[in-house]
Write a structure and sequence with these properties.
The protein is built from 15 helices and 21 strands. With 484 residues, it is an alpha/beta fold. Strand 9, helix 6 and strand 10 form a beta-alpha-beta unit. Helix content is 39%, strand content 20%. The strands form five sheets. A seven-stranded mixed β-sheet has the order 15-16-17-14-13-18-19, sandwiched between helices. The protein has a six-stranded mixed β-sheet with strand order 10-9-8-11-12-20, sandwiched between helices. A three-stranded mixed β-sheet has the order 1-5-4, with helices on one face. The longest helix is centred in the first third of the chain and has 25 residues.
Amino acid sequence: MTTPTPPSGRGNGMHHRHIYLDGAWTASTSDTFIDVVEPATEQVIGSVPSGTPQDVDAAVRAARRAFPGWADTPAERRCAYLREVADALERRGPHLAELIAREVGTPVGFARIAQVGLAVLAFRTAAEVGASYPYEHSQANSLVLREPFGVVGAITPWNYPLYQVAAKAAYALAAGNTVVLKPSEVAPLSVWELAAVMDEVGLPAGVFNLVGGVGPVVGEALAAHPDVDFVSFTGSTEVGKKVSRTAADTVKRVGLELGGKSPTVLLPDADPADVVPRAVAAAFLNNGQTCCALTRLVVPRDRKEEVEQLAAKAAGATRVGDPLNPATQLGPLVSAAQRDRVRRHVQQAQEQGATLVTGGAEPPEDQPCGYYVRPTVLSDVTTAMDVQHEEVFGPVLVIECYDDEDEAVELANATPYGLAAAVWSADRDRALAVARRIRAGQVEVNGGGFNPRAPFGGYKQSGNGREHGLFGLEEFLEVKSVQL
């Protein structure tokens, strides 16, 4: 697992040799390191320590020691630190966007707006909400208090490595908890930058701790640790189930943001020429590596051919290439394993009867290097096919057909997930009525814009709990009733 020097021409290697514990960069108890591979070049660009349960225990003990002082710190002061973090991340924005483009494959333009921009916004919104929140109120003869849990263990994914940390750490810290973070080992480099920012702004020792490593070792130790009071996990549904089982032995609170297989419902009065290109773009967001990506297009049966033609045109116009090129719209997937998994899904779908509209499982001809997948659209997809209900996590959009509105809703809900959805109609009230019938945590109506204060989370196997805004803060607050 030791790392060679990365190739010239794309910057120096970023080989981190320490974890962040108790306010200081500290050597891990492990002497091994995990390579970080750039998906566009298939070359090693950095590495991080492969942490141990001993590292987790040291981090949790540091967070436990820091908790009383941090919880007693006035909310406005806690949130002032978060504003400083946001400012520092914003100053580093161009560098962070390029770094995430290199470690994830995200097109750099999208990385600036979403990967970095949303992380900055999360810290600022958490500070705003946390500073103004009423942490106590009277109810008859009781005083109802909202108090921090204690030590929060945060386990975050590789697809939005900085933003997902911000969604957890910013709100947990604003509420008065201390944090031990285990980021994905696949794309951890931007998180090491965040830890440097936490150190730079002078966050008190032990309030934020970072331990690198793999899930079965570090993640499991964090979920099982008896002095961790809350585990917040974002990732696959299967791993989320394991986190829940592990945490159950100590009966700690668990928040889960898991997978999705989210539909866009095009109602008969919507204009396909307007909706379909947007639907394709929504499915391919972050190279299709987005848990809430709208990867299913549910359309009237009599509009199928029109929709297929529009989808083929939009997908075919998607610019695939180097994520560091500002013109690129679709970069490589994060790893060879992820690329191969997506290609298998495409091949299997065709074997099960889906029609290939555009793209396919073959490697892109103009990308001889890198973990690229063709932007793909499949039609004639039914609920009997795996691609209809399994999360593919790549640039693959499937088209499903319905005959009436009730069937459209039935299809939209025909998934074990319930993270997101979208509804389009010429009649806003009609679209809203359908949105109310869809079992998902967040539904867009006619392209409704992103709201950083709105709660985000899922129904069914997409998880439990909510992130962002008021709900995101309350996720990390316990309730106490004092009788007077």
